[in-house]
Amino acid sequence: MDQPVIRKLSTGVVNKIAAGEVIERPSSVVKELLENSVDAGAARIDLTVRQGGTELIRVSDDGCGISAEQLPLAIASHATSKIQTADDLFQVQSLGFRGEALASISEVSHLSIRSRPASADAGIEMEVVGGRVGDQHPCGVPVGTTMEVRNLFFNTPVRRRFLRTTQTEMGHVTESFTRIALAQPNLHMTLRHNDRVMYDLPPVDRWRDRIVAFFGAALGEALIPIDSTRGDITLRGYVADPTQSRGNNRMQYLLLNGRYIRDRSLQHALGEAYRGLLLTGRYPLAFLQLVIPPEMVDVNVHPAKLEVRFTDSRQLYSILLGTLRNKFLTTDLTARAAVDSEEESVRERAVRAGHDPSEAQRHRQETMRWTANRSAADGPNGDALSSESVVPTTTGPSVPPFRPFGGDRPIPAGGGPELSAEYHGTGDATVRPDPPHSGPHARSARGLQVQNRYLVTDSDDGLTIIDQHALHERILYEQLKQRMAAGTLEIQRLLVPEPVNMTPPETSAVLENRDLLAQLGIAVEPFGGDTVLVSSYPAMLVNVVPGDLLRQLVEVLIGPERDPQPSDLVDSLLHMMSCKAAVKAGDFLAPEEISTLLDQRHLFHDTHHCPHGRPTALVFSNAELDKQFKRI
Ligand code: ADP
Ligand code: MG
Predict the structure, then answer these.
(1) How far away, in angstroms, is 306 Cα from ligand 2 center?
(2) Does 58 contact ligand 1 (Cβ within 6 A)?
(3) CB atoms within 10 A of CB 438
(4) DSSP E strands, 373-475
(5) How far apart are CA 372 and CA 406, in angstroms?
(6) What is the mean pLDDT of residues 385-401?
(7) Residue 130: per-residue pLDDT
């Protein structure tokens, strides 16, 4: 073997390696450029992006500018104006200090810089292509700096191939923008994508206003202020009450001395504070600023400075947990939590929304009729999507006779560990006239409703207790899926399309998924600004306010998964819609409704679990009952 030769890497290769660490995708460029503008003392920062940042990222600020002599240094690696000595590393007051960002960006893109300090009469312009510095020219520009990054990763094809769809990249860009705009409420910040203004955020005095600008007034109302100081550590900001939660922890904004960070320990403390207040798998929302002396934290442990190391992380954990626990003790969370959307009954929701409860009741009956009408709509003469059947508005249930397919097909049993048993369908049970509804429990020939929550039914083999919401949700989900596949989903066309106001990223997510939503019978169109018009939606969702529906859909569309497959998205949307449309715990059911639900449960596989994976039913076999009652 030849003796290996050790060589110093060329600056270009070194810089590419360094660039790989800092610049992962367009949003990393956005983060670095915005941070530089903040550090430059700008009062206004404008961000313009094309094609999710893959074509163009432009950041303009009115900050201190860079002088002509200094400009080449700005893009040199390990060159910074922010620190000088190693000790300074532990006194960092600025967002940047590594002196690497511009070097890395210019290495893997076409970078153009125009800048003018207040002391200079004219500005200076400089181009850098793949690390190669071009000439400098004087140019006429206002005081401040404009950085333009084009053709990102043009010379690193592997990185370029890793770029995802415009929508995904734009999602990351928006997130970078959001993090900095949340941390800098006193700056005027704008974001434009493909000539559309997504955000125009004037400076605000109250932090809450900036949060609302991003996440809407409904969230604003759910915010609980936090303000606590212990020694030289201050924690302030907001957490959201338990009515607001997400399926992931991305709405937990933690700002450390003005810098957005992720910290597992503090996220854990947040989760602990909400223990018992949220369903499992749900995450609280938080907007918290932690102000601590700079020497108590090492920010130099992560190339993008997203993670930091605290000298006393346990102390911060206990401050966060303690502060939130105290706050929750003195806040009436039960009153707030009572309107939790998933468990809330149609009636409660209607009352809260100022609707007529009897109207809501009627809507529910219509959804239930939709559930029961399955065989009619799925037949050869079923209503096709194009022919748009309209939901009847007459009241009074009319349930068609029910014919189970293969009613004696065994269904795998679910239930708790001690309760498992084989459950068999009831076969061709004869339907007797419903007895008059008596006492606090509704009963039908097929079962009994208890606590407005559970259905109890017996069969030859034993006793089954069913969660009415979970079962209905499961049935609707299966029906929706079948009808969508068969093109027989009924849609409700609105006489007057309903405008729905959303945040800009929500609006783009909805509009970019128009085709997908159309498959579900939801027609949306742009209406200018951040408003979209809903002109039709699935008939089964008559009891859902279109605005609510759209916002829930958005949560799915910009969900935790990166680049979900369209089929997965459709599936999540179907789950969400079924959950919305299903009867809720707390809804009183008419005997016909009980029969409808119980009848339909044999039609689908695994009706023992709702789409969330919770059990829908507990099954007590005859043998189990006999054993419990010590008969055997
Ligand atoms: P760092 O931010 O870690 O210092 P950068 O590579 O991001 O490193 O920037 C290098 C230097 O260029 C900064 O220290 C700063 O002096 C200058 N600079 C970068 N962007 C701007 C800007 N928008 N306005 C003024 N100066 C800037
Ligand atoms: Mg920087």
Answers:
(1) 14
(2) no
(3) 8
(4) 410-411, 423-424, 448-450, 454-459, 462-467
(5) 17
(6) 31
(7) 92
